[in-house]
Amino acid sequence: MGLQPRLGRVLRLPPSGRNSRFLGSDVSYADLSGRDLEDYYQPQARDADENTILLELTPKPRAPTPWGKVTLTVEKKRVLPQKIVYYDQRGNPVKEVVISGFAEYAPGRYLITASEVRDLLNQGWRTRFEVSDWKVGPVPDGCFSQSALERGCRY
Amino acid sequence: MKGATAMTTARLAWRNVWRHRQRTYLLAAVVAYASVATIFYWSMIDGYKLSVLEAHARYVLAPVTVARTAWFADPDPENGMSDTDQALAALTSAGSPPYAPRLRFAGLLTSPYLSETAFLRGVDPVAEAAVSRVPARIGKGRWLAAPGEVVLGYKLAERLDVRLGERLVVSTAALAGPRSLGLEVVGLVHARVSTVDDFGVYLHIDDARYLTGLTGATHLAVNAPLGHEQTLARRLAKELPAGLTAKPVWDLVGPIKTDVEAGKKLSLPIGLLLALFAALAVTSTLIVSVLERTREFGVILALGMDNASLGWMIVLEAAFATAVGWLLGLLLGYGLIYYTSTHNVLGPFFQLSGEVWSEAGLTEEFYTHLSPLYAFYSLITVIVSALAAFFFPALRARRLQAAAALRWE
Amino acid sequence: MNALVEARNLHKVYKADGVETPALRGVDLTVQAGEFTAIAGPSGSGKSTLLHLLGGLDRPTDGEVWLDGQRLDDKNAVERARIRLWKVGFVFQAYNLIPVLTALENAAFVLELRGRPPAERRQRALAALAELEMGGYAERRPNQLSGGQQQRVAVARALAAEPAVIFADEPTANLDSKTGLALIEYMKRLNREKGLTFVFSTHDPRLLEHVRRVVRLEDGRVISEEVAG
Hints:
The complex is a heterotrimer of chains A (about 160), B (about 400) and C (about 230). Chain A has about 160 residues and is mainly beta. Chain A has helices at about 30-35, 35-40, 145-150, and strands at about 1-5, 10, 40-50, 50-60, 70-75, 80-85, 95-105, 110-120, 125-130. Helix content of chain A is about 10%, strand content about 45%. A seven-stranded antiparallel sheet of chain A has the order 3-4-5-6-7-8-9. In chain A, strands 1-2 form a two-stranded antiparallel ribbon. The longest helix of chain A has 6 residues, at about 35-40. With about 400 residues, chain B is α+β, with helices and mostly antiparallel strands. Chain B folds into two domains: about 5-55 and about 255-405, no CATH class; about 60-250, no CATH class. In chain B, helix 2 runs parallel beside helix 13 (about 305-340) and helix 2 runs antiparallel to helix 16 (about 375-400).
């Protein structure tokens, strides 16, 4: 959701529409949700070694995704993603996400604690994403107020 | 025993026109220049207004728009028509002008590299061609044929860096909530109208209906010949039930209308000033030529022509040369505006004036208008300047004394 | 026999910027039809003014001018123009041909003003040019002719119109003496053979040897009149 100054109206957008860069960094909304990958693509195993499987995801017809394909490197043991590469429709990699840290918050359930998004079109442009502290449980509505988002939220 | 007759005077004047070649050419050139300037000036003024009107009627909006009154106030799909039956019935009783349903909505375009918000237009690919020039202005690829396709303004496509055959994600949130589609880019519009080339997005109306959840259309674009938009809109408005209305393009262009009309008002004094300069040029040319020939006129008087006939002879000479100049000016002037009305030579020139131009809905192309009225305008200019110009020589001829003129060096 | 041209006590005063300059101070002159008269005198003596008044180009400040039985000085500009057109021929010092017209067209100009049909104009103008031995130059423009030739065309222009009298104002002043003398001879022959009345002015005493009647002017007055035997 966001006010679009040029159109003069508020646009409430579906997840696929959230590919614009988030807060000016290399992370898009889509990178943070990951749900798109399941809905819009058809997976195909391309390669495998001892520890990893390489999946190539191709968009379903009329899928609302701008990518030509997405490759996903998955760790065999825990079935956790290690690297996601987004290709444009001309076959050039545009962006990759490397995931380097996980926290197991429940048996078999993981939370990404360290990842890096690299803009492959602009060398050296990247965004690191690290989770220093985490807690499991319901989040009170008060934490989504603007002041709480700015100052932090204690509960 | 009689004086020189009118016939004789006219014959002498006609002969002088061709014998004093240089002077005739000079005067004719000055008059031709004034005529060309007048014709070109008014052609540009009208060309500007019509270009704006044309751009909006044929590219940006429609000659006449039929929609719910609420939609004109807030053009959101929420204010659209869930079915168009009532509007279509009114169209039928107003003589069934060609029309196309449209569904306009705000949305987001996403390419692998960039996102951009835009107003998207859902259209019926076949019907659209009867109302808009956009389908005929595809620079690359083709016009829409089926759902799942999108056509973009070529500059927008450049900004998004999408090419023919590639998928573009189109998202919006309207009556149906947030929805998006991946559409294949099948064509790039090269309309040379900035609003279209920079921001135009055209998709199949069925896709627009799916995205917005509106089952009908936001409005109907109705065709009307250039200049008849107002009449048709009024006729349609009478037929439409309460809550629906029809508006001509000129009512929807907003501040541009005020700009153009203010410009037209401003053009009148400038046009008059132009006529004044033309008159000055013609007058001074005539005065110099009459002064130059004082001695010749003295001889003619001495030989027995009276002052009135001499005056008429000079005026007729000037009138003949002026007529020759005017005809030449018509030929050149209409040649020029014919050329500038069919070739885009002025567009790049005006583009230098920048933003104002592109905000008016025009950038790259500017065509002058052709109207027989300009011949009349130039004739008035020529007649007014000629009357002013003839006054001096005629007066001088009347006052000229043969004996004094003969002493003139 | 009535006089063809008669001036009675002619006065002419030019006024310019409030200054009055008398040019003629009571001139009496009579010219009979068929006469060949010279008006002689130094420059500024009033010769040109006298000829202009006699020919109706200008009006006297006082006195009367009669031409062919008509009084001129009380006529308005239109009437005088009409009289000039039909009765008077002029030859000027500076030739005053119309530069854009050929010799033939210049010679026919007065006839054209009178509205004569083209064939008649051409025939009479060609005849007049032939009289002055200018027939071979009919299609030339003034700037293609010598001074003497131009003046002969000017005389032909007067001649073709068959006026009652031809006034020639210093017709030889711009010509060398030989050419000037030749021009006077042409005029004398026309006077002799066709009975044309000429009144011409000159300040060149050598020309006067060949003229029967000489009227001398000085300071706007006639000081003498000689008629050779």
